[in-house]
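Our preliminary data section would be incomplete without showing what the modeling component actually yields. Below, a chain of 159 amino acids is followed by its predicted structure, encoded as tokens that our downstream tools consume directly.
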Amino acid sequence: MATIRRIGPEDWREWREVRLAALKDAPDAFGSTYEREIAFGEADWRTRLTRGGPIVAEQDGRIVGCAAGVPDADDPSTVEVYAMWVAASARGGGAAGALIESIVSDAREAGAKRVHLWVTETNERARAFYRRHGFTETGEREPLLSNTTLDVLGMERVP
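Predicted structure:
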């Protein structure tokens, strides 16, 4: 079973490692790229962690996944899920469920009205995972920022 832990600026090296692993493993799942973020310096990584929201999943003392839940800048009653990823070696072992349920629980405690995310339309495994965790498609669709040949679909859940 995965343990979920919130991280902050002092954990920037761990965040960098897991984030770069995610971008390398699943480039079509994120709005950014490995090439862009490998160039970030310590200050960039620390700044990203001061915005709040990042959590990691740990199993046997190592980080196997990450995600972030951040209030939407335009609608504070919505929490946006970003950077959701689990290492291939830990998929199917509960880390992803622990991450998403932690974000939903935090959103509920903060009084959010909905949890929203974007998922690449071709990632049926992720879409099915989110549906199993109570998310429904919203009908929203837009190009993936890092690969505009793909679209992302909006999904939401009431916390």
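The domain at 3-157 is CATH 3.40.630.30 (Aminopeptidase). The CA atoms of residues 140 and 154 lie 5 Å apart. Preliminary results of this kind motivate Aim 1 of the renewal.
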